[in-house]
Automatic annotation (TrEMBL):
SMART domains: AAA. Keywords: ATP-binding, Nucleotide-binding. Residues 3-235 form the ABC transporter domain. GO terms for molecular function: ATP binding. InterPro entries: AAA+_ATPase, ABC_transporter-like_ATP-bd, P-loop_NTPase. The keyword Signal does not apply. This is ABC transporter ATP-binding protein. The keyword ATP-binding applies.
Length: 255
């Protein structure tokens, strides 16, 4: 087992935002986190990353509660990529990517050859080598997103938690990013709105509705016309690609 949530809830305001979620993420797997707007995907990702404390229940990494991990060790293991990374400071792309190395560096240890190699590899993988000298604030939304991915990759994590990593990307970069993430020997949880991207790239999916886990399992079993109608109130046809066996979804007009 890699990451595991057991009976995890998080309350904000009047009621639970995440409500009793139990979920195992197998090592090396790419798990898609699906659900309508406001269903709790980002909140659950923050709980899985340990950046937010559960109101009840426990998140474990390798069967050990996150709270029992030394923070630096945890920071080396878990990398996150959020939806809205912003800064008012004039930092370069190279500076942002190098932040991924901080958990690996001691207070008095200078940047090592391993740090430089990890940053180079991450920039190459995310296709941002040519942007390294640019100021972060001058980047397009998609370029910022790929820079954040490079920062997360430079961290050389074993678990990667991505919140809608494709939302600013053109179709080519969407496919590239998810193919890259899927090929990594890393356990990944990725919140997605695009059901066809989930169908194509996720080994399994977890579907949240109003903070509760409505379904979890292999993508092929979970992504059905009935589930899509129930969760999103949209009619669809779900087929399977004969070459890959993977599902695809075609949405139908209301009526
Ligand atoms: N700090 C907070 N205080 C109060 N309510 C919150 C807080 N954070 C999130 N919420 C609410 O919890 C619900 C779930 O939010 P969350 O961002 O986790 O959903 P999501 O599934 O990621 O949504 P989206 O698909 O729109 O990004 C929303 O109704 C949101 O307004």
């Amino acid at each position: 087992m890699s990451l595991n949530a057991h009976g995890v809830s998080w309350h904000a305001g009047a009621g639970p935002v995440v409500d009793g979620v139990t979920l195992d993420v197998e090592p090396g797997q790419t798990l898609g986190l699906l659900g309508p707007n406001g269903s709790g995907k980002s909140s659950l990702l923050r709980l899985l990353a340990g950046v937010r404390r559960t109101s009840s229940g426990v998140v474990r990494l390798d069967e050990r509660p996150l709270s029992a991990w030394p923070s630096r060790t945890l920071a080396r293991r878990l990398a996150t990529m959020g939806q809205h990374a912003q800064t008012d400071v004039d930092v370069t792309v190279a500076d942002v990517v190098a932040l991924g190395r901080v958990p690996h560096q001691g207070a008095w240890r200078p940047t090592s050859a391993a740090d430089r190699a990890a940053v180079d590899a991450a920039c190459a993988a995310a296709g941002i080598g040519h942007l390294r000298g640019r100021t972060w604030r001058t980047l397009s939304g998609g370029e910022q997103q790929r820079t954040q991915l490079a920062r997360a990759l430079a961290q050389e994590p074993t678990e990667l938690l991505l919140d809608e990593p494709t939302n600013h990307l053109d179709i080519s970069h969407q496919l590239e990013l998810l193919a890259l993430v899927r090929a990594l020997p890393v356990t990944t949880v990725v919140a997605l709105h695009d059901l066809n991207l989930a169908a194509q790239f996720c080994d399994s999916v977890a579907v949240l509705v109003e903070g509760r886990l409505r379904a979890h399992g292999p993508t092929t079993s979970v992504l059905t016309e009935a589930l899509i109608a129930e969760v999103y109130d949209v009619r669809s046809v779900v087929g399977h690609d004969p070459a890959t066996g993977r599902p695809w979804v075609r949405f139908l007009p209301p009526g």
